[in-house]
Structures are given as C-alpha cells and as structure tokens.
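Exercise: predict the fold of this chain.
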Amino acid sequence: MSVAPSESLIEDLYATGQHRVDEAAEFLHLDEDLHAVLREVKRVLQVHFPVVHDDGAVEVYTGYRVHHSIARGPAKGGIRYERDATLEGTKAQAMLMSWKTAVMSLPFGGAAGAVEVNPSELSARELERLTRRFTTEIGLLLGPERDIPAPDIGTGPQVMAWMMDTISMHQGFSVTASVTGKPQAVGGSVGRVEAPGRGLAAVLMHTLRNTGLTLEGAAVAVEGFGTVGATCARMLVEAGCRVIAVSDHAGGWHNGAGLDIAALQRLKLEGGHLGDGGVPGEAISREELLALPVTVLVPASVESVINSQNASQVRARIVAEGANGPVTPRAEAILAEDGIVVVPDILANGGGVTASYFEWVQDLQSFFWDEEEINSQLERAMLRASDHVWGFAAHNHISLRRAAYAIAIGRVARAASARGVYP
C-alpha cells in the first residue's frame, strides 16, 4: 500500500512523481521489476560549461539533460533557463513528460533540460553564446530520432532557433526536426504558441459538460496570465464563460461582471501590468484569487501554488492544472474531501506537446498544415484523451489524476515489456 507523501515533498517534485508511479503500479498490479524501472530516470547528463560575457569575463554555468523513458519513442521535453533550476526538478519534469506524451497517445518518451541561469541578466549575444555552448555540450543526446527539445520557462522560439542551427552546423545540413517551438521561418508550425492554452480550454469545456455544469456564464479565475493562461481565458470567454479574475507575478485584476481579456492581453503585450488599470475592475492578490467562489480555477503559473496551507480556502468546483504540478498531493486530498474536481496536468496541459508532435511530423515530411488543420487536429486529440481519462475514471471509480496516470503508465509499461530487457 502506497503512503501519501508529506507536505515536505512540495520541494521534492521528483519524490512526488515517484509516489504517483507507486500509486499507479499498485492499481495496475504492475510487475515489480517493471515498476522499479519506471520510477527511475533512464539517464542524466550534467554539464559545466564556460560562457564569455560581453565584457570579456568568463562564467561557468551548470546545465542538465535528463531522459526518463524512451520505450515509446524518442525523448521529448522542454529546456528551462532558470536560476533556481535543479537536477531533481529536471528529473521530475522528465518523468512528467513520459506520462504526458503517453496519455496523449504520442510516440514519444520523456525528457527535460535546464540551465541554472537567469536569462534576463544576459544580453542577447550572451544568451546566444550560452545556448549554442549548452546545445553543444548535450548534443550527443540530441536529434530527431533521439531527443527533441522544446521551449519551457525562460526560453522561447529564438532559443530553439539557435539550438536547431547549432545542431545543424554540427551535422553540416539543416536538421529542422531536431527541436520544436521554433519560429515559422525555420520550420516552426503555425498554432504552436497558442496550442497549450487552446488544449487546456478544450479539456475544460469537456469537463464542464461531463460534470453537468453550464458553460454559458460560468465564472473562471486564471492564476498565471502568461501565454497559456491568457489564451485559455480568451477561448473560454469566446465560448460563453465569464473570466472574472486573472493574475501574474506582479499582481492580479478582478471584476465580478467579467474582464475584458483582449484588452488585458494588449496591455501585457505593450509591457504593462495587470494592475495598471485600463479595464474596469480592482486589484487582487494571488491568494485572494485562489479563494474566489468560481466554477473553474486555472492555476497556470508554477508548481505547488495550491498546497496544504491554502487548499481549504479554494471554493472552485473545478481546478484545471494549466501548469505542471500546481496542486500538491496533500492539497489534492483536501480538495477531494470538498468535492472539487481536479483535472491533472498531464491531461490539461497536453496541448503544447501535441502541437510539438505536429511540428516534428511536418518537419520530417517537409509538408506543412494550415492553422485551421492544426487547431482541428489539436481539439480532436485533446477530446479523445479527455474522453478516455473520464471513461477510465468512471469505470474504476477513481479520480481523474489516478485514471490519467494509470492510462499513461500502463501504456509505457506495455511498450517497455514488449521491448524486453537488453541484452
């Protein structure tokens, strides 16, 4: 019998991930040897590399690339540039990607990478030099058939373009399928930037229907008004919902009658802050937002936002994890006691990696789809995965998270079992 982790595991995301595996293994009656394999990462590459700064000074940076499983296909996962990045956190993200790609039925394994750096402290040239050197250091793992990085916290299309170009220079020809999340000018896909938010909105609308809640006029609060949260908010408004509160790292904004999401997006794009005014409403803190009596709460910023200290204050009917791991295990138990439905991250924010799969396929074939086709395929994939998770949960009388993990881990386990142990 697995034991629920203590709240101290808020800071130990990898141990929390292993706990999720243990729960699923017990439910699935997984072979002990296979269980032991899946609860550990396959490989870790840690690198220390110098970067010449614009003033001529040299600084040594630490970076990681981790593979959790490649049983179902090449490793897939993001690259973070984050001052507080750690090896344990990177291992947790790699494991999460294995389950996310599996629950979405994508032919990928799970990977993650990080560099311990605050990118805002670097000039554009320094950022490029760091990216190209880091790519070279981990290059022995990378390639369209081996490991395909994507952007994550602190990185974006330009960083992916530099990574792709570095890999291509080493190969002597363009390898556009070596990374995803690139600019369209170098093989990026239309619809990629908005895909995580679009996928999240599609799953949320499906969840509202499955729980018998009305979409029209449903009150929504979004914690984390970045690309994912803002796109999701806009789509929910277009579908008839009422987004009454949003927040980011600098603060939040609230209007019980509903916010002008398009105006707030323009404000952010112009470099403003949510609290600068310009739309009707009032300032609100993140903690106040999390406690609003809404139909849907979307934590879409960082890990462990909802924990044992504040979970009892949450008054939403549905919590949809737009970020990775925003609800701790202890908090989820509290939410369950209050009858709150939690849509797990490996399903709710699977739109990004699904669109990355579309980009990878298009690059390999040198045949590109239009945005209408991308969005249509994305919606079908999200609804198919959501249907499967809801059906599995109902049939087995378990939570959506346990259902999603059981489906994902079962798929990876079957692939690993079919391949056997080499030699």
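Check your answer against the key: Confidence is low (pLDDT under 50) at residues 1-11.
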